[in-house]
């Protein structure tokens, strides 16, 4: 009976260790009040994080809005086109604004906010509507990809 208990305890210990090891490889996605999605990046400098963000968004079909900032634009999917073309007019685009904030000498938080944008080329200016939680998982996946690029 003691051998059986010892075997079970050893198996549980190994399982706990392996689960803890797997969990440490995942990025630390965090919840903030001022962003749609956020991730904590450790042991990378801001320049490397910036390049990883740019590469991730470009690979996923976004275009940079300007050379210097971390704002990206992508044509909205067919549902966004139908939803916004029906009463707002014009094509809907997604505008994503990324911020990198240093929280310690070895940690940064990368925050994402997304907006549906219409009338981009209008003389009256573009109209933005903040994206809410329904699309949060898409942006969390992008941040996980940023974290993965930095680990390689």
Give a brief outline of the structure.
The protein has 152 residues and is an alpha+beta fold. It is built from 4 helices and 7 strands, in the order αββαββαβββα. Strands 1, 2, 3, 4, 5, 6 and 7 form a 7-stranded antiparallel beta sheet that branches.
Can you tell me about this structure?
With 152 residues, this protein is an alpha+beta fold. It has a single domain (28-151), classed as TATA-Binding Protein (2-Layer Sandwich), CATH 3.30.310. It has 4 helices and 7 strands. The chain has helices spanning 2-25, 46-59, 78-87, 136-151; strands at residues 28-30, 37-42, 63-64, 71-75, 93-104, 107-118, 127-130. Strands 1, 2, 3, 4, 5, 6 and 7 form a 7-stranded antiparallel sheet that branches. A hairpin with a 2-residue loop joins strand 5 and strand 6 (107-118). Helix 2 crosses helix 4 (136-151). The longest helix is centred in the first third of the chain and has 24 residues, at 2-25. The chain is globular and about 40 Å long. 22% of the residues are buried. Residues 17-25 have low confidence and may be disordered.
Helix-strand sequence: HEEHEEHEEEH
CATH level-3 fold name = TATA-Binding Protein
| CATH structural class | Alpha Beta
Helical content stands at 40-55%
In percent, how much strand structure appears in the residues? 25-35%
Number of helices: 4
Low-pLDDT windows of residues: 17-25
Rg over CA atoms: 21 Å
Let me know the number of strands: 7
The CATH architecture classification is 2-Layer Sandwich
Measure the end-to-end span: 47 Å
- Mean pLDDT value: 77
Instruction: Summarize the main sheet.
Output: 7 strands, antiparallel
Give the tally of structural domains. Answer: 1
Give the CA-based shape.
globular
Q: What would you call the structural class?
A: alpha+beta
């Amino acid at each position: 009976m003691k051998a059986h208990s010892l075997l079970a305890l050893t198996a549980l210990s190994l399982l706990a260790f392996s689960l803890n090891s797997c969990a440490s490889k995942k990025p630390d996605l965090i919840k903030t009040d001022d962003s749609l999605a956020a991730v904590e990046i450790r042991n990378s400098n801001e320049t490397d994080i910036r390049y990883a963000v740019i590469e991730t968004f470009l690979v996923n079909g976004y275009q940079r809005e300007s050379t210097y900032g971390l704002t990206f634009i992508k044509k909205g999917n067919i549902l966004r086109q139908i939803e916004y073309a029906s009463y707002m007019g014009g094509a809907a685009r997604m505008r994503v604004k990324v911020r990198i904030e240093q929280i310690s000498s070895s940690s940064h938080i990368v925050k994402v906010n997304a907006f549906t944008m219409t009338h981009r080329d209008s003389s009256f200016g573009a109209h933005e509507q903040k994206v809410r939680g329904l699309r949060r998982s898409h942006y969390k996946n992008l941040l996980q990809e940023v974290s993965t690029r930095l680990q390689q």
